[in-house]
Amino acid sequence: MSKLLNELCELIRADGRGVNKLGRASGVPPSSLSRLLNGTHGLGADHIEAVAKALGYTVELRPTPKLKKRSK
Predict the structure, then answer these.
(1) Could you give the CA distance from residue 2 to residue 42 in angstroms, rounded to a whole number?
(2) 54 Cβ partners below 8 Å, 6+ apart?
(3) What confidence tens digit (pLDDT) does each residue in 22-33 have?
(4) Which of 23, 42, 45, 69 could crosslink 30 through cysteines, CB 3.0-4.6 Å?
C-alpha cells in the first residue's frame, strides 16, 4: 500500500468514528473504507480527497525538490 494510503488509514483509525459514520460524512461507501483498512483495496483520488476532507485534512501535490547534480 502507498505511503499516502497508509497515512490515511492511520488518520481513519485515530478518528474513531468508524466506517459507517465516516462513510456518511465523506460520501465514500463504508465497504470501500473497510477494504482500505483491511489492506485489500485502495481508493481512487476522488475518494481519498473526500475522506481526507471529512477528517479535516487536504491532499496536496507538490513538486519534488530537484537534486543537485554532481560535478565530474
Answers:
(1) 9
(2) 22, 25, 26
(3) 999 999 999 999
(4) 23
Give the three-class secondary structure for 55.
coil
Dig out the grid coordinates for 47 from the structure. 475518494
What is the DSSP code string of 32-71?
A: HHHHHHHTS----HHHHHHHHHHTT------PPPPPPPPP
Length, in residues, of the chain: 72
pLDDT attached to residue 72: 65
CA nearest 60: which of 46, 72, 49, 71?
A: 49
pTM metric for this prediction: 0.83
Instruction: Measure the CA–CA gap between 55 and 36, rounded to whole angstroms.
Output: 15
